[in-house]
Amino acid sequence: MQVTSSHRLVVLLAVVAAAAASTCSSARGSPERPSPSGVQVAVTKTTDGDTIHVLYQGRDDRVRFIGVDTPEVDWYGGHAECFGSEAGLYTRSRLAGRTVGLVFDVNQRDTYGRLLAYVYVGAELFNLTLVQRGYARADPVPPDTKMAALFARAGDVARAAGKGLWSACPA
Questions:
Q1: Catalytic center residues
Q2: Which residues contact 15 (CB under 8 A, 6 or more apart)?
Q3: 95, 170, 82, 171: which is closest to 129 by C-alpha?
Q4: Contact status, residue 115 vs residue 61, Cβ threshold 8 Å
Q5: For residue 146, what are the contacts with CB-CB under 8 A and spacing of at least 6?
Q6: What residues have CB less than 8 Å from 24, skipping those under 6 apart?
Q7: For residues 120 and 169, what is the distance between their CA atoms, to the nearest angstrom?
Q8: Which of 131, 53, 62 is nearest to 97 (CA)?
Q9: pLDDT given at position 25
Q10: What is the rounded distance in angstroms from the CA atom of residue 133 to the CA atom of residue 139?
Q11: pLDDT digit string (tens) for 112-153?
C-alpha cells in the first residue's frame, strides 16, 4: 500500500485528537477542576464580564462568577475601567442565549443576593477561560476558594504573556 500525504495527514489528525481527548478527560477527573455536574440554567442576560442573569428555579437571578474579577463597564451608569467593555462583550458573545452549568462552592449567595457560581459551557470552566485570556484577574473571596490556586496560576501565565488587560491597560 502506498502512503500518500493525505493518509499521513489523517493519521496525524487522529493522533492529535486522541491526545487531546486523553488530556481533557484526565483534566476533568482532577480534584482541582471538578466536572460540570451542577444545575443547568438558561442565560437571559449578560450584565458585564463576570455577572450574568439566568433563569433559576423559575425566576430571573443574577450570577456572580466565583474567583474572578473583570474590569467594570459603563453600560449601566458606572465608571468604565480599562478593558471592561472587551470583557463584557466577550462574555456576552460566549454566553448570551446559551444554557450553562452552575456549580456552587461554600456560599450559594453573596451579600447582594447574587448567586455565586463556577460557570460551565459544556466541559469548559468559563471563569478560568476569562482569566486565561486576560479578560479577568484571579480574585479569591473566602470561603469560596476551591479553584483559587488554579485561577492564580492561569493569571500568572496570562500576565507573563501580556494577554488581554495585561497588555491593554497601564499598571
A1: 64, 72, 114
A2: none
A3: 95
A4: yes
A5: 34, 105, 106, 118
A6: 123
A7: 27
A8: 53
A9: 37
A10: 15
A11: 999 999 999 999 999 999 999 999 999 999 999 999 999 999
Report residues of the chain scoring pLDDT below 50. Answer: 1, 3-34
Q: Look up the CATH number of domain 63-168.
A: 2.40.50.90
User: 65 near 87, Cβ under 8 Å?
Assistant: no
Direct distance between the N- and C-terminal alpha carbons of the chain, in angstroms, rounded to an integer:
61
pLDDT score at 37? 66
Count of Cβ atoms closer than 10 Å to residue 17 Cβ: 10
| Number of residues that make up the chain | 171
Contact 90, 77 (CB under 8 A): no
Q: What is the pTM assigned to this prediction?
A: 0.79
**C-alpha cell belonging to residue 101:** 452549568
SS3 132: helix
Phi, psi of 62 (to 5 degrees): -80, 145
CB 158 within 8 A of CB 133: yes
Give the cell for residue 146. Answer: 476551591
As a whole number of angstroms, the distance between CA 51 and CA 100 comes to 13
The DSSP code for 171 is -
Please list the helix, strand and coil fractions of the chain in percent, rounded to the nearest 5, in that order: 35, 25, 40
Give pLDDT, residue 46: 96
